[in-house]
Structures are given as C-alpha cells and as structure tokens.
TrEMBL record:
<dbReference type="Pfam" id="PF05138">
    <property type="entry name" value="PaaA_PaaC"/>
</dbReference>
<dbReference type="GO" id="GO:0097266">
    <property type="term" value="F:phenylacetyl-CoA 1,2-epoxidase activity"/>
</dbReference>
<dbReference type="InterPro" id="IPR009078">
    <property type="entry name" value="Ferritin-like_SF"/>
</dbReference>
<keyword id="KW-0560">Oxidoreductase</keyword>
<protein>
    <submittedName>
        <fullName>1,2-phenylacetyl-CoA epoxidase, subunit A</fullName>
        <ecNumber>1.14.13.149</ecNumber>
    </submittedName>
</protein>
<dbReference type="InterPro" id="IPR052703">
    <property type="entry name" value="Aromatic_CoA_ox/epox"/>
</dbReference>
<dbReference type="InterPro" id="IPR012347">
    <property type="entry name" value="Ferritin-like"/>
</dbReference>
<dbReference type="GO" id="GO:0010124">
    <property type="term" value="P:phenylacetate catabolic process"/>
</dbReference>
<dbReference type="InterPro" id="IPR007814">
    <property type="entry name" value="PaaA_PaaC"/>
</dbReference>
<dbReference type="GO" id="GO:0005829">
    <property type="term" value="C:cytosol"/>
</dbReference>
Length: 321
C-alpha cells in the first residue's frame, strides 16, 4: 500500500479506548475522525485485499469470456467484468478517503505486491472454467462480502456493499445456471467436472489459514469481519456442496453428521501443479507454510493481468514525459 506523506498517527488521532467506546455505543465509524491508528491500518488492509481481488478478477474473467458460445453470452460475461471493475473502484475510492494515494496503489505497485486470492493467478481457459469460477469464486466473494456487510463497523463500506451484494448474486446465478445447463449433456458435464476438480480445492484455500494458525483479534474486535476463516469456509461449503450434488458434480467434501460440520475428503492443504492445473493429492497434505510460499510467489497470470491493467496509465505517463 502507498500512503500519503502523512503517517497514520496524524490521520487517525483517536485512542484505541476511544474507538472501543465508540463501537460499544453501537455507532459506526464514518471516517478518519473516528479512527485510531490501529483501526486505520486494519481497515486499509482489508479494503486493499477486497479492491485488488475485484480488480484482478476483471482481466481473468475477460480472458475466458472470449470462449463464450454466442455473442449474447459474451455480453453477459462482459457485464460481470464491468461490475467487478465498479466494485474495485468502490474499494479504492474509500482507500483514497483514508489517505491512500489511489493512483500509486493501482498503477505503480509491482504485480507481486497486489493482494488477492492465488486462484485468480491460474488462467481460466474455457467457458466451462469461467462459469465454474462464477459458481465457486463468486460464491466465495458473496460469502465474504455478505459477512462484511452484516458486520462491518465502517459505515461507508457497509452501505456500499448493499449494491455490491446484489450484483454478486447475479454473477453467482450466471454461474449456477450455466453449470446446470452444461451438466445436462454428458460431454459438457465432463468438462465442467474437470474444471471443478482443480477449482474447488483452490477456492477452499481462498479463505486463508485455519483458525488454529491465525489470530483474528483485531479483525473481529473492530468489526472488519464477523466470521473467522474456518467459519467462512464452512459457510461456503454449505452453499456449494449441495448445489454440486444436485447437478451431479463430484467434489471432495461432505456433511459430517457426527461433527455437525462440512468435512473435506482429500489431503488439505495439498501441492498444486499450476501448469497442469492438477492437485498432487497422492503426495498427501503439505504444510501451510508451503502454501504461503506458493501464494507469495504468485501464479502464472499475475504479471500479465496487472501489466494489462496498468498499461494505459504507464503509456500516458510515457507520452507526457
């Protein structure tokens, strides 16, 4: 993140106790005047992840939209891309209000500094993979942002998410409608299954480290989110697994009656061959440290997507100079 010259201590001058009293009184945080330095750092962090995710999803979806079976289907996919760009703008605009240099944040960061789920660094190469992404990735986005919408103590973002949630519902419906349609044909269904085989586990990773390995103190205490990583992962499986059962797509998860929770039926986390888009499950589970190393190294499309998003800005600067 590239902040302004002013340090957070000057931008957000309330004490931590004052912020806690404000929140305990049931009031929303409306701007810098209500924030402590710690609150400001935290809300900047979660807004950056959200905005970066929305932004990078646009070139990822646009790439796959070129495989649309008909022109009107391409139009539907492009409307989703436009929504994602608008959602990214909301996040960056709010960051601008919080003292972040938006142009530097979007156009001058190195690709590896963007913060979004690793899943978007793996290319979507077909219409089948695009609609599966709408069914899995957008469901993950919907679960995460719905939780923020319910729980956020940052008023401007909470109000903006009312619109975002409705549009994400459209993306999800687009994916589910197409998955159901394609699964009616055995040949098409096999291609949908192939997409699910690598994308389901990748989306399980989307929610981050398990609760036993991650401290959520400030995120939950200050209401940046309402649910832990494991709770969000469970909420996602509760929506996705029954739908996949309904359309006959196999996914490695089931409802465990004894534990009263969704259980993952494969080694997790596991090693992933990003070129072959294949999980090396026969090797057994790996450590979360190994997963974090893969995340930090980014995937094959990181440079390409970010460079494409920054290309116009950099070309204009070159002409001006």
């Amino acid at each position: 993140m590239t902040p302004t010259a002013l340090p957070v201590e000057e931008l957000a001058q309330r004490s931590e106790d004052q912020v806690r009293e404000h929140l305990a009184a049931g009031k929303l945080v409306e701007g810098l005047q209500h924030m402590s330095p710690e609150y400001l750092r935290g809300i900047r962090r979660i807004l950056t992840v959200s905005a970066d995710t929305e932004l990078v999803s646009a070139p990822a979806y646009l790439r796959a939209a070129q495989h649309a079976p008909a022109l009107n289907n391409f139009g539907s996919a492009v409307s989703i891309v436009q929504d994602e760009l608008a959602h990214a703008h909301i996040g960056y605009r709010l960051l601008g209000d919080l003292g972040v240099d938006m142009s530097a944040l979007i156009y001058e960061r190195e690709p590896g500094a963007f913060k979004y789920p690793y899943a978007f660094d793996v290319p979507l190469d077909s219409w089948h993979e695009l609609v599966m992404a709408n069914a899995l990735y957008d469901q993950a986005g919907f679960v995460l942002l719905s939780d923020v919408h319910r729980s956020s103590t940052f008023g401007p973002w909470k109000r903006a998410l009312a619109k975002v949630d409705k549009e994400e519902t459209f993306h999800l419906r687009h994916g589910r409608t197409w998955v159901k349609k394609l699964c009616a044909d055995p040949v098409e269904k096999a291609r949908v299954q192939a997409a699910a085989d690598w994308m389901f586990i990748l989306t399980l990773e989307w929610f981050g480290l398990p609760d036993a390995r991650k401290k959520h103190g400030i995120q939950l205490e200050y209401g940046f989110k309402g649910m832990s990583n494991d709770e969000l992962r469970q909420a996602w499986m509760a929506e996705v697994v029954p739908f996949m059962d309904e359309v006959g797509i196999d996914v490695p998860a089931h409802w465990d009656e004894a534990q009263q929770r969704w259980a993952i039926d494969c080694p997790f986390p596991a090693r992933f061959d990003e070129e072959a888009k294949r999980w090396l499950l026969d090797e057994g589970p790996i450590t979360w440290e190994e997963v974090q190393e893969r995340w930090k190294g980014r995937g094959p499309m990181n440079q390409s997507y970010v460079s494409r998003l920054q290309k116009g800005y950099r070309s204009r600067l070159a002409v001006m100079n």
